[in-house]
Amino acid sequence: KTYLGRSEANECRCNALGILGMAFNERAADALPVLKAYLALTERYCPNVRGVLTAQGNLATCLGNLGRSDEAVILEREIYDRRVAMQGISHEETILTGNNLVG
Known about the structure:
Blueprint: E1 2-3, E2 6-7, H1 11-23, H2 28-45, H3 49-65, H4 69-87, H5 92-102
Antiparallel strand pairs: 1-2
Helix pairs in contact: 1-2, 2-3, 3-4, 4-5
C-alpha cells in the first residue's frame, strides 16, 4: 500500500497518523480509528518498543475519554508491566504510567 507515493512503513507517514490522532483530542470518537491504525503501523514497523508503548498510551487515553474505562485500564496495565520489565519500577516513564492507572 502507498500513501502519496510513500510506503506503509514510511516513518513520516506513521508519525503523521500519530499527530492526526492526537489532534482529535476533543473528538475521541474520531480519534479512535486513527489511533488504532497508528498503533498497528507502529507495532508492525517501529523498531523502538518505547514508540509502541507511547502509541498504546495514546489509545488508552482515547478509550478512557470515550468512557471505555475497562479497556483503557487493561491497556494501561500492559504498558505498565512492559515498562517495569524494560526500565524498572523507579524510571520516570514507569511512574507516569503507574499514575495513569490510579488517576
